[in-house]
Amino acid sequence: MKNKKANILTENVIFIILNLVFFSVMILFIYLQSSSVHINEEEVAKQIALLIDASKPKTEISINLKDFFDKAKKQGIDKEKTIEIDTIKNLVTVRGSEDSFYEYGFFNDEVEVYIIQTQKDSDKDFLTLEITKKGEENVVK
User: What letter does residue 79 receive in the DSSP assignment?
Assistant: First the structure.
């Protein structure tokens, strides 16, 4: 009788320990994925594409991307190389590290998009886009 009770207790302890290990690994995986630069690449690309889709010609948009630029700098990417906008293919390409990038398309065929400046403020990094009508030159150079 004592051997049976000890066996049940041992099985329960092993079951609890395995569950704790499993959930610890799951939480660690979720944490590492959520703090990854890949999530930020996707977020920034979609944000810029949605802003381009909603904008009209002769619009200037400034986006605060300090967190993204800081993460990309830690990965060895210059601020000038992080974001590319191809108005021929209607693609926003965001690069947050040497080995990854994220492309997201936009639908606004009526506009050209120019990255006119990335200015450094004391604690803010801005990406400034100028939206013009297709075929027109950008006003600010």
Answer: G
Count the alpha carbons within 13 Å of 10 in the hemisphere toward its beta carbon. 6
Tokens of 24: 């610890």
SS (H, E, C) the chain: CHHHHHHHHHHHHHHHHHHHHHHHHHHHHHHHHHCCHHHHHHHHHHHHHHHHHHCCCCEEEEEECHHHHHHHHHCCCCHHHCEEEECCCCEEEEEEECCEEEEEECCCCCEEEEEEEEEECCCCEEEEEEEEECCCCCCCC
- CA 128 from centroid of its chain's CA atoms: 17
Decide: 114 and 43 in contact? Cβ < 8 Å.
Answer: no
Q: How far apart are the first and last CA of the chain?
A: 87
pTM for the predicted model, two decimal places: 0.72
Distance of CA 137 to the CA centre of its chain: 29
User: Considering the chain, what percentage of its residues have pLDDT values greater than 70?
Assistant: 85
Cβ(131)–Cβ(77) under 8 Å?
Answer: no
pLDDT by residue (tens digit) across 92-117? 999 998 888 999 999 998 899 998 86
